Amino acid sequence: MMFRDQVGVLAGWFKGWNECEQTVALLSLLKRVSRSQARFLQLCLEHSLADCTELHVLENEANSPEACPSVEGQGVHVTQAEKARDTCQSMRQLPSVTSKSG
């Protein structure tokens, strides 16, 4: 089977999964890439999302005090750094995979 055929099969599976399943599959694959591959993908994503107004609106809404009234006034404020730290901690709890360092 040619590489493009394999990619097509994978893309078909991916399309059939819900967002959570897609996210888990992507994270599993991303944990296997070298640092240079990861950096390239980071730059591609940043470029792709730079002008995504919808995403910026959703992030602002999600981070507004009105979005979480149960914690408003309780001194709860989650910074981007805290979110990143929590994400990294969650990623470390996923099963590890054998990968090449880049």
Automatic annotation (TrEMBL):
It is found in: Cytoplasm. Keywords: Cytoplasm. Residues 13-47 form the RNA-binding protein vts1-like alpha-helical domain. One of its GO terms (biological process) is nuclear-transcribed mRNA poly(A) tail shortening. Its main location: cytoplasm. InterPro entries: SMAUG/VTS1_RNA-bind (IPR050897), Vts1_dom (IPR057327). Signal peptide: none annotated. GO terms for cellular component: P-body. GO terms for molecular function: mRNA binding. The keyword Cytoplasm applies. The keyword Nuclease does not apply. This is RNA-binding protein vts1-like alpha-helical domain-containing protein. It comes from Phrynocephalus forsythii.
